[in-house]
Structures are given as structure tokens and as C-alpha cells.
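Suppose you are handed a protein chain with no further information: no name, no annotation, nothing but its sequence. What can you learn? This example shows the usual starting point.
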Amino acid sequence: GLQKEGMALRPKVIEKATLLKISTNDSLMALDKVDADRLKPKLKWVKTPRMLEGYWVASEGYNPSFMSTTAIQGRVSEIGEFYIVSSAKPSIGHTSISLSDGSASVSTHTTGKATTASTAARSSPSPPLRATPSASLPWPTQASPSP
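A reasonable first move is to predict its three-dimensional structure. Written in C-alpha cells, the prediction is:
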């Protein structure tokens, strides 16, 4: 009786719940596409033949010789991960970097040696960002708005 009816009802409930989740995900994907389409004109795709993976960067902050300068750059990977890359020339031996917008912050992992620090940070702080290197710089540092 009752157990048999419950067993017959179970697949129907699972199907309805799954359809609801699919519908919700479709709606979220549509909203994400609208946001991506809105941001895309503000971004530049960077991938050279020597690179394994490309990345998106703010068009206005793109500098092809970035690694030969002192700067901080927010990037978005091919799969949508936000990460930070920093470079200091002349080298000051920085081992990590932190960025904050007042309500959120993100930091690179501290490396064991003085090198250019970068990390995948699964956070998207809102621009404008203020740079706070772990080694003090004798000149001002600017951060590009994150894509």
C-alpha cells in the first residue's frame, strides 16, 4: 500500500527537483552571459605563441612589456579564475602582494624566495584596488582595475 505508493512517487519528486535545478542554472547562466557580454569590450585577450594559456586583462591597463616594469595586474584565466601578477623592476625582492578595495582583499601566497609573485585567487574584489606590497616601495604603486 503506502510504501508502494511512496516508491512510485520518489522518481517523480527527483525528476521535478532536477528540472527545477536545471531551470535555475539556466537562468544563472543567462545572467552571467549578460555580464560577460557587458564586460567583454573592456577586456583584451592576451595569448602569444610562447604562452601555454591565455588570459583576459583590462584593455586600458594592457602593457605588452608588463614584466619589465613595476606594476600589478589583475587577470582572468581562460576558465574564469581571477589572479594577480606583480612585477618590480628593479627587483626589490618582494615575495607576496595584497590588494584591497576596503570591503574585500586578496593576497598572493608568500613565496620562499624573492621572485615575481602570482597566485590564483578565487575572489573578485571590486575596483579600484590599492596595492600593499610586503616590501616597501620607494615609489607609488598603482593597480589596474580587475576585469
